[in-house]
Amino acid sequence: MSKHIVVIGGGFAGLNLIMKLGKRTEFEITLVDKNNYNFFPPLLYQVATGFLEPSNISYPFRKLFRKYPNTRLRMASLQQVIPSENKIVLDNGEMNYNYLIFATGAETNFFGNENVQKNAIPMKTLNDAINMRNILLQRLEEASIATDKIEKAKFANIIIAGGGPTGVEISGMFAEMRKYIIKKDYPELIDRADMSKIFLVDGGDAVLKPMSKASQKDTYEALTKLGVTIKLNTQVRDFADDMVVFSNGEKLPAKTLIWAAGVTAKVFEGIPKECYGRGKRLLVDAYNKLINTENIYAIGDTCLQTTDTKYPDGHPQLAQVAIQQGKLLAENLVAQFDGKTLKPFSYYDKGTMAIIGRNKAVADIPKPKLHFKGFIAWLTWIFVHLLFLINYRNRLTTLANWTSAYFTRDQSLRMIIRPGKDNKPA
């Protein structure tokens, strides 16, 4: 008899597992996801800044599953797990499983700061990216007619919290937009010295902390040259009434705070507290099986695995970890079904990279230990990100948009679209 695998979450980890098992007749697979599409998180900021359409980085699950006859989609949200009955409760029904796999990724961590959570702009979902694009464009429109000096200062300051790849890439994109696009689209702002000020804030002593010292230094210098003000060893403590308060007591008037400062995993009703580790991540063994369970697994950002001798404190929450764990778990489920030996997970680090701006990027390759910067790293970043988009349509449309933007230093996707609001005919 075939085994029913229920996968919660269709991100890097879940989708790679499904594609590995999708044609195995010994399994029936159900993907549970609150969306009906997969999207590519590393390029969310390009949707948010109007350089890519949402469809460039997303793809519908059901169309993808056409070539996997044993795979189904259940568009739903998980409410509860009942391990004793091998059952989950969804917001639209119940479902039994032989194997349950959590691949839910991570969500934005506001570190308990309610004002920041309420007023800042997060960057974790496609909805977040579209919302951010709308907000930024709307505020540029408002800034173009502002006359009060205090109000102008609030519009002028854009603060990005978090000096990781997302924060760095957004900062660089904004800096280039200010230089090449905003001054053409908004002539009302050209003569203002305070047209736009970009601040990148991080609590550590360097940007891109997980990368090499050379990448950190190159990124700092490149962003500074682009006009980004970098504040290190500084945290955002509060954001209310258009005022950002920092840990050193400094205050800046601003209407825009973009939050890219941290993530946390999710907690699921029915999973015992002892199954959670640091950052609410699910504790798993060397085979990604949840501790103290027989048929529940976790892969990707949502799990914490300390059995890999190279990463005794757990793996970094990166796409490559999720992809490799998803593929290996698929292989191990087949091996388990066939009564063969399972293979423990060991992460193979292929390197890390971040783009800063036009012809500017940094890349670290661990074996052999190499560091790239500038145009070569920029080309590598483009190639890798195109390669990991889910199909050829996404790759071609994204490449076309990037090519146009590269040669024109411009793009034409700056529309404010708010579905469900003001739908009356003109």
Describe this structure in words.
- It is a single chain.
- Helices cover 32% and strands 24% of the residues.
- The strands form eight sheets. The chain has a five-stranded parallel sheet with strand order 5-2-1-9-21, covered by helices on one side. A five-stranded parallel sheet has the order 11-18-12-13-14.
- The model has no long low-confidence stretch (mean pLDDT 92).
- The chain has two domains: 3-106 and 265-337, FAD/NAD(P)-binding domain; 114-261, FAD/NAD(P)-binding domain (3-Layer(bba) Sandwich).
- The protein is globular and about 70 Å long.
- Helix 1 (12-21) runs parallel beside helix 9 and helix 5 (126-145) runs antiparallel to helix 6.
- The protein has 426 residues and is α/β, with parallel strands linked by helices.
Mind sketching the topology for me?
Layout: E1 3-8, H1 12-21, E2 27-33, E3 37-39, H2 44-48, E4 58-60, H3 61-64, E5 71-75, E6 78-82, E7 87-90, E8 93-96, E9 99-102, E10 107-108, H4 114-119, E11 121-122, H5 126-145, H6 149-156, E12 157-161, H7 165-185, E13 197-201, H8 213-225, E14 228-231, E15 236-240, E16 243-246, E17 251-253, E18 256-259, E19 263-264, E20 282-284, E21 296-298, E22 303-305, H9 319-337, E23 352-357, E24 360-365, E25 370-373, H10 374-388, H11 392-408
Parallel strand pairs: 1-2, 1-9, 2-5, 9-21, 11-18, 12-13, 12-18, 13-14, 20-22
Antiparallel strand pairs: 3-4, 6-7, 7-8, 10-19, 15-16, 16-17, 23-24, 24-25
Briefly characterize the structure:
By secondary structure, the protein is α/β, with parallel strands linked by helices. The protein contains 11 helices and 25 strands. Helix 5 runs antiparallel to helix 6 (149-156).
